[in-house]
């Protein structure tokens, strides 16, 4: 006797093979049988005719590291049909912290007090898990933890803008090795952020060798996603060639107006490398705007030493300030460019800028756009979040039609606006249903290919062996949705909206979402490699 039997669904098993009308049986948290017709009895039999039965989605690129400390429902993800998130991305994880950092944290508290969960910064992955468990935290999605390179480098090299020494590389490699031993799934680079921005190829290759030894992936927020994006991809290829570790490009995009229309060349570069034996993959989200810290408008060198130093460079008259001002004048000369930068939240530091584009604020203040950006950076101490309308929709559409995994780059968030900082990018609420809607409306790829890119493909990239496929003995993480209705409803103006068409989500064979409503179960946990 099975626990649950899903009958008459369109079974899309995650492999990329053609779907078929059939049944899926679940027993003891695992898939027991997948067949055209299963006659055995079950405690619960659900007729899912007219609906697609798929492995639950795996969010290849997530920033939910701190989300569950704040709200264990993980609403914006589970309601999209996502049961597993790959976190610790863009170089940032809550560990490892050095002894000195831990002491400072204990005495002074977290650096950024507005960030929930920041006091869970831990010396290693094991102690993070133990502390969270001891405090009784639960979660509603599974988390696959990567180790942030910037988190390692902060403790080993600090915030100075120099290459690391070979002694420092040895220490970083040791920390990486130790945390990989504890069940993490790979290394994430954040080469556009502090302090990874200052790392050279030697450092990355040394760490790549550790990843190769453990047979784990290196994901990367690349050094450049704009004018130098091809050079940035070349760097990823070189890391693979010289270290042997598989490399993965996070949130693949072209975010420079000068390069708009060249997505085909970018994809070709990656595809060619792959054909030449480079283990390289990528993920993306289906939106033409990105979202990150407001300092994204500045060049990398402005970040050396941390935000206080950046503010000093912006305020103190002199060569550095002039160079930064010239940079902003070059990138954001008029209201058109200013309107591509939208401030989501200044976390109370400069409310005048909240929910406005830099173009709009410049008109209100009667200042030029570069002056408005300077003022906003200074008033917020460089700690505001923005949305950047920096991609061309044709480039996004082109990449969306290719063999690229789907990753939201978003945080599991509550639907209650009061529990969020400003208006986050709708990708946190809509990425997966949006991809399915665009697929349906624009015939981007067959449904089985779309499902593959949200299930087995990401599972393969991180080396997750028992999820992402509907096959006997796999964990019963399943999403059931209405292919004719599935849609995102979250917008930039109102992101806090539940998608349409996600009917059931099961995790370990239990209902996380049933008939479109989240249950009281908190079925997630850290998955250990
Ligand atoms: Zn990133």
- How many helices? The count is 18
Question: What about the largest sheet?
Answer: 9 strands, mixed
As residue ranges, the low-confidence spans are: none
Structural class: alpha/beta
Small-molecule components bound: zinc ion
Say how many strands there are: 22
Shape by Cα distribution: globular
Percentage of residues assigned to helices: 25-40%
Mean pLDDT: 96
- The N- to C-terminal Cα distance equals 31 Å
**What is Rg?**
23 Å
Strand content: 15-25%
Describe the structure.
This protein is of the alpha/beta class. The chain has 18 helices and 22 strands. The strands form 4 sheets. Strands 1, 2, 3, 4, 5, 19, 20, 21 and 22 form a 9-stranded mixed beta sheet that branches. The protein has a 6-stranded parallel beta sheet with strand order 9-10-11-12-13-18, sandwiched between helices. A hairpin with an 8-residue loop joins strand 1 and strand 2. The longest helix is centred in the N-terminal third of the chain and has 16 residues. It binds zinc ion (ZN). The site of zinc ion (ZN) has 4 residues, from loops.
List keywords for this structure.
9-stranded mixed sheet, binds zinc ion, 34% helix, 22 strands, globular
What's the layout of helices and strands?
Elements: E1 2-11, E2 20-27, E3 30-35, E4 42-47, E5 52-55, E6 57-59, H1 67-70, H2 75-78, E7 82-87, H3 99-108, H4 125-134, E8 142-145, E9 147-148, H5 149-156, H6 166-181, E10 186-190, H7 201-214, E11 217-221, H8 229-243, E12 247-249, H9 263-275, E13 280-284, E14 290-293, H10 307-315, H11 319-331, H12 335-338, E15 341-345, E16 356-357, H13 358-365, H14 369-379, E17 385-388, H15 393-400, E18 405-406, H16 427-442, H17 447-454, H18 456-462, E19 478-481, E20 502-507, E21 510-514, E22 517-518
Parallel strand pairs: 1-4, 1-5, 6-7, 7-8, 9-10, 10-11, 11-12, 12-13, 13-18
Antiparallel strand pairs: 1-2, 2-3, 5-19, 14-17, 15-16, 15-17, 19-20, 20-21, 21-22
């Amino acid at each position: 006797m099975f626990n649950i039997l899903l009958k008459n669904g369109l079974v899309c098993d995650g492999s990329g093979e053609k779907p078929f009308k059939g049944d899926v049986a679940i027993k003891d948290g695992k898939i027991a049988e997948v067949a055209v017709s299963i006659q055995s009895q079950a405690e619960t039999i659900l007729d899912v005719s007219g609906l697609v039965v798929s492995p639950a989605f795996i969010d290849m690129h997530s920033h939910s590291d701190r989300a569950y400390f704040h709200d264990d429902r993980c609403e914006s993800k589970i309601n999209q049909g996502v049961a597993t998130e790959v976190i610790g991305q863009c170089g940032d994880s809550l560990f490892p912290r050095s002894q000195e950092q831990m002491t400072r944290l204990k005495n002074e508290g977290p650096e950024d007090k507005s960030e929930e969960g920041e006091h869970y910064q831990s010396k290693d992955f094991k102690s993070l898990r133990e502390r969270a468990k001891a405090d009784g935290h639960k979660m509603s999605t599974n988390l696959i933890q990567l180790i942030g390179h910037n988190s390692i480098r902060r403790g080993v090299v600090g915030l100075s803008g120099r290459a690391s020494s070979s002694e420092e590389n040895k220490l970083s490699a040791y920390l990486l090795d130790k945390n990989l031993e504890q069940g993490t799934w790979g290394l994430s680079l954040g080469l556009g952020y502090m302090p990874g921005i200052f790392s050279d190829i030697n450092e990355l290759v040394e760490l790549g060798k550790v990843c190769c030894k453990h047979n784990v992936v290196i994901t990367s927020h690349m050094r450049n996603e704009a004018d130098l994006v091809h050079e940035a991809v070349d760097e990823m290829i070189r890391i693979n060639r010289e270290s042997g570790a598989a490399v993965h490009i996070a949130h693949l995009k072209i975010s420079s107006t000068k390069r708009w229309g060249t997505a085909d060349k970018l994809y070709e570069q990656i595809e060619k490398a792959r054909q030449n034996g480079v283990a390289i993959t990528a993920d993306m989200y289906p939106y033409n705007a990105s979202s990150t810290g407001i300092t994204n408008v500045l060049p990398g060198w402005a970040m050396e030493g941390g935000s206080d130093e950046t503010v000093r460079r912006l305020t103190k008259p002199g060569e550095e300030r002039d160079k930064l001002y010239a940079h902003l004048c070059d990138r954001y000369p008029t209201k058109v460019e200013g309107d591509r930068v939208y401030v989501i939240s200044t976390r109370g530091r400069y409310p005048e800028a909240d929910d406005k584009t830099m173009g709009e604020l410049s008109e209100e203040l009667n200042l030029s756009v570069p002056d408005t950006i300077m003022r906003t950076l200074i008033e917020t101490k460089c700690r505001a979040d923005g949305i950047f309308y920096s991609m061309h929709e044709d480039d996004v559409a082109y990449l969306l039609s290719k063999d690229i995994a789907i990753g939201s780059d978003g945080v599991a968030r509550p639907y209650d606006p009061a529990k969020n900082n400003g208006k986050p990018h709708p990708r946190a609420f809509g990425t997966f249903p949006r991809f399915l809607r665009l697929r349906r409306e624009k015939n981007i790829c067959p449904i089985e290919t779309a499902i593959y890119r949200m299930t087995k493909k990401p599972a393969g990239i991180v080396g997750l062996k028992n999820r992402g496929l509907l096959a006997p003995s796999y964990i019963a993480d399943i999403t059931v949705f209405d292919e004719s209705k599935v849609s995102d409803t979250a917008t930039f103006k109102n992101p806090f909206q539940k998608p349409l068409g996600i009917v059931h989500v099961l995790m370990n064979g239990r209902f996380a979402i049933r008939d479109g409503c989240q249950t009281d179960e908190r079925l997630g946990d850290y998955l250990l490699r």
